[in-house]
């Protein structure tokens, strides 16, 4: 895994947030539900790029080209994210999906692996904006010991190589740790290659 603290300076964070506001205006955040149980997740989601990661009661975890609520294609990925991938990810093809997660107040994300992609040779690249998130990352077994990182606004984190399938999650958000988002909370973006080139 690779951690790039403060990879994006304030100016870049503001520019990225501006691009995301325009994305969320046409592809609104929605509340995804868990497979089988249909329980709502505490994190709200949307996507940009040719594909988006979604989950619902009957279809389970998958990628699709359209927003599940509006039925429209996902908006394009901002150029600055494509540039970041080119710079950081050691992978010769562009990302196809950017999952946008919004954590308000008490939202969190349980330990999980990102394994709905066809090609685990491609990394998953994460960008954090807004309040600090307590990120926990372990090994390929759920029982492996975990380390904690405080992901702050502007931090970039990559799961690649040996760690591509490491279990990871967000324990909680530290309210009031950033003034980037006037509404508070945390945005996390994850860039993924979905199909095998
Ligand atoms: C989050 N991140 O930071 C959740 N996945 O809110 C992830 O689930 C994640 O940070 C794959 C690679 C890096 C990540
Ligand atoms: Fe993940």
Describe the structure in your own words:
The protein is of the alpha+beta class and 197 residues long. The chain has a six-stranded antiparallel sheet with strand order 1-10-7-12-5-2, covered by helices on one side. The chain has a four-stranded antiparallel sheet with strand order 6-11-8-9, with no helix packed on it. The mean pLDDT is 98. It has a single domain (2-192), classed as Jelly Rolls. The protein has helices at residues 10-26, 79-88, and strands spanning 2-4, 44-48, 52-54, 62-64, 97-103, 109-112, 124-130, 132-137, 147-151, 156-159, 168-174, 186-192. The longest helix has 17 residues, at 10-26. Residues 112, 114, 168, 190 line the site of fe (iii) ion.
Concise overview:
The chain is α+β, with helices and mostly antiparallel strands and 197 residues long. It contains 2 helices and 12 strands, in the order E-H-E-E-E-H-E-E-E-E-E-E-E-E. 14% of the residues lie in helices and 31% in strands.
Task: List descriptors.
2 helices; Jelly Rolls; binds N-[(3-hydroxypyridin-2-yl)carbonyl]glycine; four-stranded antiparallel β-sheet; six-stranded antiparallel β-sheet; 14% helix; binds fe (iii) ion; globular; 197 residues; alpha+beta
Shape: globular
The CATH topology annotation reads as Jelly Rolls
Low-confidence stretches: none
Query: For this structure, what is the CATH class?
Result: Mainly Beta
Element order: H for helix, E for strand: EHEEEHEEEEEEEE
Give the class from helix and strand content and strand pairing. alpha+beta
CATH architecture: Sandwich
How far apart lie the N and C ends?
Answer: 23 Å
Bound molecules: N-[(3-hydroxypyridin-2-yl)carbonyl]glycine, fe (iii) ion
* Average pLDDT metric: 98
Strand content bin:
25-35%
Q: How many independent structural domains? A: 1
Work out the number of β strands.
Answer: 12
The radius of gyration over CA amounts to 15 Å
Helix count, per DSSP? Answer: 2
The CATH H-level superfamily is Alpha-ketoglutarate-dependent dioxygenase AlkB-like
How helical, in percent, are the residues? 10-25%
Largest sheet: 6 strands, antiparallel
């Amino acid at each position: 895994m690779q951690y790039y603290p403060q990879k994006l300076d304030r100016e870049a964070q503001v520019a990225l947030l501006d691009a995301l506001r325009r994305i969320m205006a046409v592809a609104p955040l929605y509340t995804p539900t868990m497979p089988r149980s249909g329980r709502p997740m505490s994190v709200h989601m949307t996507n940009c790029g040719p594909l988006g990661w979604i989950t619902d009661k009957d279809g389970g975890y998958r990628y699709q080209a359209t927003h599940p609520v509006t039925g429209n294609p996902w908006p394009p990925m901002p150029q600055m994210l494509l540039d970041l991938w080119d710079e950081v990810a050691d992978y010769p093809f562009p990302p196809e999906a950017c999952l946008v997660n919004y954590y308000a107040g008490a939202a969190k994300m349980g330990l999980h692996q990102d394994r709905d992609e066809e090609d685990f040779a491609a990394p998953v690249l994460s960008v954090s904006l807004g309040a600090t998130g307590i990120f926990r990352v372990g090994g390929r077994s759920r029982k492996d010991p975990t380390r904690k990182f405080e992901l702050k606004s502007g931090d970039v984190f990559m799961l690649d190589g040996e760690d591509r399938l490491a279990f990871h999650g967000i324990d909680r958000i530290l309210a009031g740790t950033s003034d980037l988002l006037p509404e508070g909370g945390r945005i996390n973006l994850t860039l993924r290659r979905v199909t095998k080139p």
